[in-house]
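hey
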């Protein structure tokens, strides 16, 4: 493996932002209807959900209601993780084609969410779709000044659908009881307190809120309620295993669990944590979660803030924010940042680990399949498939590793390979990897220590058995790349090739000869004709 490799995930929002040396943006960016240059931006994906322009981060409050999937997301009119956050709202009939409906929740001037409507969940209570989210509120000049004083600038807020008979749920009203929770429990020196996750047991609602203490680490605080308005604090649902980085008083965010997501999968409790895209498995009794196993859902540092919903078919659907991996300056110049991952299906395997696959609905985008069967792939050498170019495609490949040490797929490649991205398996480390070191010549994509942003190698365990074939499914969507391996690993990444000719698709093998059992490449249909740039007026926050 090459140098400057990093293991995926592992960063909180604040670490990521600090390392990316973000400066606050000023001035809003609004794309003009249909004539937006974003519609012609080759780095902007075509079948991933995004707002028409500007900034997206966490998925929020996924909900299935009256035949439509609703997905909300953290939206900011400025390209900055510190921009004021709104809830952007999109709907889909099939989990694949999304239509942006604009802003569902906006900060109330002078209200407990005056500095932002942060992440949260949506549930249906007594027939009324209800959102519970975190309001950002600080009276000092900024969040960090307030936190430095030990004040927690977060409140928990409830909003209900103004008209539950509207399948589009276009209007939301905040309830008079807000904030429904105004401070973390006494006795907890919380470094943060946000991102409620809800579930129901009998007639009682339970809510886990992300928190943590320096010296103790991340935790999810458990509350209960019968009406979603009056909440009683119970105890921590779960506390992180000892982690030395959580002791560091200079980096208090390490001690925080952002976006805890608790649910039952095939009857077993699962807790997701934003940092490192981790999942924890274990037991649940007395309303306490006891961790036994753990794993990582996505090995890419680009993926963050996982969120799920159980749909009408009883499936557990997963999304995450796929962040940018180029400089903030180039994000601002582009006028947009942040992509929603494709919806993925989570299942629990008999061995206790989670399986992760793209939802089958995505197959409706496939067209023009090109197939290869039984092809020997010699080591080294540049191998691109003839008559096949795409940056909007799905690749399904099964490779017998043979004598190779590494094998996989080459994408977004020029014919001479001067720009290219490799996605494959390393037999010695038994890891899936994505190597974007040569993915772009743009200096804005340079990897800099600690390699949170920019080009590098992302990797994580795949542990194929000796005779097991490598099975990859790769979604290429302009700058967004999502890889699934053998039904049990995923890796999201970003690439920004400079050359418009970086569209080649092929194979690579190192250290021996491998054999492709089968490979199919489909061109995928875009989900809109303008890279999802219409509806920008619905996102106007100036009013
Ligand atoms: C995670 C996060 C959440 C917070 C939201 C604000 O990325 O920091 O903890 O609610 O983003 O946009």
């Amino acid at each position: 493996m090459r140098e400057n490799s990093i293991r995926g995930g592992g960063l909180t929002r604040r670490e990521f932002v600090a390392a990316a040396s973000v400066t606050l943006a000023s001035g809003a960016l609004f794309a003009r209807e249909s004539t937006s240059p974003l519609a012609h931006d080759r780095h902007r994906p075509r079948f991933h959900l995004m707002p028409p322009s500007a900034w997206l981060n966490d998925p929020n409050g996924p909900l299935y209601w009256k035949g439509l999937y609703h997905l909300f997301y953290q939206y900011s009119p400025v390209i900055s993780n510190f921009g004021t956050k709104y809830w952007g709202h999109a709907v889909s009939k099939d989990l694949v084609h999304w239509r942006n409906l604009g802003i569902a929740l906006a900060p109330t001037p002078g209200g407990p969410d005056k500095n932002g409507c942060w992440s949260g969940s949506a549930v249906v209570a007594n027939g009324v779709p209800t959102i519970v989210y975190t309001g950002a509120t600080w009276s000092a000049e900024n969040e960090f000044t307030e936190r430095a004083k030990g004040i927690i600038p977060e409140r928990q807020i409830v909003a209900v659908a103004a008209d539950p008979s509207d399948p589009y749920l276009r209007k939301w009203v905040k309830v008079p009881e807000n904030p429904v929770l105004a401070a973390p429990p006494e006795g907890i020196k919380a470094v943060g307190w946000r991102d409620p996750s809800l579930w129901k047991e009998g007639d009682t609602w339970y809510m886990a809120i992300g928190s943590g203490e320096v010296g103790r680490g991340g935790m999810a605080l458990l509350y209960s309620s019968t009406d979603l308005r009056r909440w009683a604090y119970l105890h921590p649902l779960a506390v992180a295993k000892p982690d030395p980085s959580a002791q560091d008083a200079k980096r208090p965010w390490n001690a925080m669990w952002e976006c805890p997501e608790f649910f039952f999968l095939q009857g077993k409790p699962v807790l997701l944590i934003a940092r490192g895209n981790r999942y924890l498995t274990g037991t649940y009794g007395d309303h306490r979660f006891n961790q036994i196993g753990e794993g990582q859902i996505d090995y890419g540092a680009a993926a963050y803030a996982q969120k799920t919903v159980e749909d009408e078919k009883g499936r557990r659907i997963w999304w995450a924010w796929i962040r940018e991996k180029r400089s903030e300056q180039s994000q601002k110049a582009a006028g947009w940042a942040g992509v929603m991952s494709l919806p993925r299906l989570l299942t629990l395997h008999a061995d206790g680990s989670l399986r992760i696959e793209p939802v089958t609905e995505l197959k409706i985008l496939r067209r023009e399949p090109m197939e290869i069967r039984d092809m020997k792939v010699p080591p080294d050498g540049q191998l691109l498939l003839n008559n096949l170019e795409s940056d909007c495609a799905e690749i399904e490949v099964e490779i017998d590793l043979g004598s190779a040490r590494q094998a996989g797929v080459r994408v977004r490649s020029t014919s001479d390979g001067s720009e290219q991205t490799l996605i494959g398996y390393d037999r010695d480390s038994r890891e899936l990897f994505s190597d974007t070191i040569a993915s772009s010549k743009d200096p804005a994509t340079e990897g800099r220590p600690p390699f949170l942003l920019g080009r590098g190698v992302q990797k994580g365990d795949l542990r194929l058995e000796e005779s097991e074939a490598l099975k990859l499914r790769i979604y290429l969507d302009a700058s967004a790349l999502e890889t699934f391996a053998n039904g049990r690993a995923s890796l999201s990444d970003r690439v920004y090739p400079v050359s418009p000719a970086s569209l080649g698709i092929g194979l690579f093998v190192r250290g021996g000869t491998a054999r492709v059992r089968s490979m199919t490449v489909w061109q995928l249909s875009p989900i809109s004709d303008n890279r999802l740039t219409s509806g920008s007026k619905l996102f106007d926050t100036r009013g």
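The radius of gyration is 23 Å. The first strand starts at residue 5 and ends at 7.
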